[in-house]
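Render this sequence as a predicted structure.
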Amino acid sequence: MLDAAIKSLAQMASPPLRAILLKSIGLAIVLLIAIGIGIDRGLMLLVERGGALLEAHVPDAHTPVSILEWLLALIAGLGVVAGAIFLMPAVTAIVASFFVDAIAEQVERTHYPADPVGRALPIGEAILEGVKAALLALLIYLCAVPFLLVAGLGFLIFFIATAYVQGRVYFELAAMRFHPAAEAKRLRRIHQGTVFVAGLFIAAFLSIPVVSLATPLFGIAFMVHIHKRLTRRVELTAGRH
């Protein structure tokens, strides 16, 4: 597995993947900015309406309300930054769905030239899987948020949750180039231990600031190798019987 990670990191610097890397980073930044603006506008609207309501019902409340609004605006700004970090795994899952075929094909042709190249996923199907994975990530992360209050335990739980989601989404995207969606999910369940450990590698990559924007590239390339090795192991086992 370490060998697969090293190969994936090395190939990310190749000219074909470098071009895809810039596009995927650009898309991730655009999505994060759009989400950040949406969160900021929503929070500011709540602050303004709440302040107006207080001023309407509490005499001489203008100055205290103005100070409170300023403090809440500052907290909201920090919340947007924290939210961007929190949403990064979900955003990269969506970005990965746009570039899965371009990345996977480069890896397959470079490292497995004797094998047939996988089937390109219909863009609608790939994006749907990416959105479903992003929603699953958000659900799991929301469940893990209360544990963040428990110092180290919270971050450990969050890291494990990230590994589970990232391993799941990237393995299924890589596997769906060779299998129907239902079969790809079945393979993931059969090899869930290996997929989870592979997810730990992706979660570690995702935890590095700025570098995390390249997660779709690393995650897909890495899981192409993992999928190939698992399917070959199954084929060898079947051949012995």
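Summary. The chain has a mean pLDDT of 78. The chain has eight helices and no strands.
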